[in-house]
Design a protein that fits this description.
The protein has 454 residues and is mainly α. The chain has one domain (7-449). It contains 16 helices and no strands. The chain has helices spanning 7-37, 41-73, 79-114, 120-127, 129-147, 152-175, 181-203, 215-250, 253-290, 293-320, 322-330, 338-348, 351-363, 367-392, 396-420, 424-452. It starts with 6 loop residues before the first helix and ends with a helix. Mean pLDDT is 79; it is low at 1-9.
Length: 454
């Protein structure tokens, strides 16, 4: 226990969770301003679709490169090999970004028409191209730092990105300066440029300034990361399928605005899960190669139990008072979001197990199995969501989200049972340990407080 939850865990958890929560706070307040400034729900829905597209791309590319980069650089290999890994990863990174930019140039108009978003979505994607250029370097430097178990610089880069965008939006709001959706895309690009500058300065101590890609390492990264890329693409589409299918099937961007409001709130309880994935992946890779499946199972069960210990009470609170939460976040015009949010909260309780399970399969060298799992669950969700949209209309995607969450959790459980001998009883036992520890700590603090005031 002491060996694994030592200074690395404290340091990495502090910066990673701080990063995730700061991003969430900035995003939440920015969203609260935008949803009140963009009173037209169709424009808010178009903005939500734009964010969904760029998030799918960034998260998917990160899955391809960052995991492979971290896995190989954090292993015990010679320094020249690490240079070749970093160079090969950067070359692949740039090629993927270039491909996405070409897709934007030639197919953004078709995509806008398919999602019934008018010409605004195509214009926003084109204004985002400068940001994509900088994202090549930003995501590479993020992988470099994480492969050296460094998280402080990553936090600084992301913080600046969000803070700059947030500040610009606040200035617009306070000065009552109107803005278009294209302006928002331009501001996104500008914030990425500044964030890249910050993360570069914090990464200089890890950079050798040599570009030495090799064909063997390109093949190895693509071989390992290719399945992760496919898995990441599918899982990110899976996570945003409700909004995309609502736009395509119901032919109404304004409907997406309601789903996006619920998705934003649901994202709050997923923050610890995604932060944990970034912290635990390097250690899972080491545990898999050095200490075997027993330690991997222990880390997985512990992490899932800790995440559920915090997400479950949060989800329960939101389920009980959804109208209050919706009013605070989205305002009085989004009451129709309440049932969507409640179903999202129930479905979100299954996310920690699924997110960490995919992380485990990638870390123990089974990205192919993870890819197959994501294909199966995405196919299931496509069918479930489409059927629910046809039968239930507006709320169909939310009902489909809940059904598919249960379906996916059952499949993942049996896979993890077979791969690492997962015991759900251990997860619940560790959850009780967490609550007991928190209770003991709270009692201790209360006693000290009483003693200090007597």
């Amino acid at each position: 226990m002491k060996k694994y939850f030592s200074s690395y865990w404290i340091r990495s958890a502090f910066y990673t969770i701080l990063q995730r929560f700061s991003l969430t706070i900035f995003a939440a307040i920015t969203y609260m301003i935008l949803i009140r400034s963009l009173s037209d729900k169709s424009r808010m829905g178009t903005w939500a679709i734009f964010l969904t597209i760029i998030t799918i791309f960034e998260a998917t590319k990160s899955g391809l490169l960052k995991n492979a980069h971290i896995k190989y650089v954090s292993s015990d290999i010679e320094s020249p090999e690490k240079t070749a890994i970093a160079s090969s990863s950067f070359l692949i990174n740039g090629a993927i970004n270039l491909l996405f930019m070409l897709l934007i140039v030639f197919f953004s108009g078709w995509l806008s028409a398919s999602l019934h978003s008018g010409a605004e979505l195509a214009a926003m994607l084109k204004w985002y191209i400068p940001g994509l250029l900088c994202m090549t370097l930003f995501s590479h430097l993020e992988a470099v730092q994480q492969s050296h178990f460094e998280f402080k610089g990553i936090f600084a880069g992301y913080f600046v990105r969000q803070a700059v965008f947030f500040t610009i939006i606040v200035i617009h709001f306070l000065a009552k300066i109107p803005f278009s959706l294209s302006h928002l895309a331009m501001y996104q690009s500008f914030s990425i440029i500044l964030g890249t500058i910050v993360i570069y300065f914090s990464s200089r101590k890890f950079l050798l300034y040599r570009f030495d890609p090799t064909l063997p390492w390109i093949k190895k990264i693509m071989g390992y990361g290719g399945f992760i890329f496919g898995s990441g693409l599918i899982s990110n589409i899976f996570a945003n399928l409700d909004q995309l299918m609502t736009a395509a099937v119901l032919k109404s961007p304004s409907s997406v605005a309601y789903y996006n409001a619920a998705s934003r709130i649901n994202g709050f309880i997923d923050v610890p899960s995604y932060a944990a994935s970034e912290i635990i992946f390097p250690k899972l890779s080491q545990a898999s190669s050095e200490e075997g499946p027993g330690k991997v199972r222990y880390l997985y069960e512990r992490m899932v139990s800790i995440l559920l210990s915090f997400t479950a009470p949060t989800a329960l609170f939101i389920i009980l008072v959804p109208s209050l939460v919706i009013y605070i976040i989205a305002g009085p015009n989004y009451e129709a979001t309440v049932p969507i949010l409640q179903m999202y909260m129930v479905a979100g309780l299954f996310n920690p197990m699924q997110n960490q399970a995919a992380n485990v399969l990638n870390s123990i060298g089974k990205p192919g199995l993870c890819f197959v799992m994501n294909v199966v669950t995405l196919a299931g969700k496509l069918g479930i969501n489409y059927s629910c949209l046809l039968h239930f209309g507006f709320y169909g995607a939310a009902i489909g989200q809940l059904i598919s969450a249960v379906f996916t959790a059952i499949i993942w459980y049996f896979v993890m049972r077979r791969q690492i001998n997962l015991h759900l009883s251990s997860v619940f036992r560790y959850m009780l340990d967490v609550y007991k520890t928190l209770y003991t700590q709270a009692i201790g603090i209360l006693r000290k407080f009483r003693q200090a005031n007597t």
